[in-house]
Amino acid sequence: MAHRWKNDLTRDDITPEALFLNRRQVMAGLAGLGLAGLSTRAEAETLKPNTWDEITSYNNYYEFGTGKGDPAANAHRLTTEPWSVTIDGLVERPGEYQFDEIMAKMTIEERIYRLRCVEAWSMVVPWNGFELADLLALAGVRSGAKYVAFETAYRPEEMPGVRFPVIDWPYREGLRLDEAMHPLTIMATGIYDRPIPNQNGAPLRVVVPWKYGFKSIKSIVRITLTDKEPPTSWNMLQPNEYGFYANVNPKVDHPRWSQASERKIGGGLFSQREPTLMFNGYEDEVAALYEDMDLTKFF
Hints:
By secondary structure, the protein is of the alpha+beta class. The chain is 18% helix and 21% strand.
């Protein structure tokens, strides 16, 4: 399959696995490593990976609690086998698609992407997955569809965090159809050639590398094609802080902090911040999607 993107990242640029999964390391020692990540294998090897316990001990997944250790403590309750995704709305073949059925029909590949959090930290991650466009083609997109809406699993018996009204459950996200069909947008099923841990969104999540990380919704159970912009969780909660588009844009600050720079994980506590790249470094690939839009208004 031909792709309209050129990957400028290699395995040497990847945030070490321990630092990716261990958010305690993120919060304790966020640091910049340069615009393109690590430049040499020698630099990569200076970053000491954490143990597996450290890797899985600190994460954000509010369905399992708002404390940083809550997801690791509670996400084992999530049942991921069997798993199915309901695809409905403006599609030719609506229905419940079993995860194993989806995987049997998709081409899994590695994509090494930058990841930029709205909280102004960043990393480089090797995802394993398939293009969202291929899954939408499996269901058949009908004319009139303009947006794709997503929902995370909502299981009060398995997710203790949903007892608290942190957001309006279930967690919801959405993309414009052309964003969803873009070859950079993938459905990730693995990290570092291993299945995604429960606390990181097992077994299936979206990854949209030119948008802030909260757009990459976890543990998806429903995909709906619609002709209207769908409601999204953080936008519903704080619309002045979290726009529907959530494109990485160093010129549009969060109301409570600057987005002009970021700290890359793994560079050491005292490393300098680095300038944030427009569209997280994917400007050449995706800028045309927003050519006629005011990105300060549609943030």
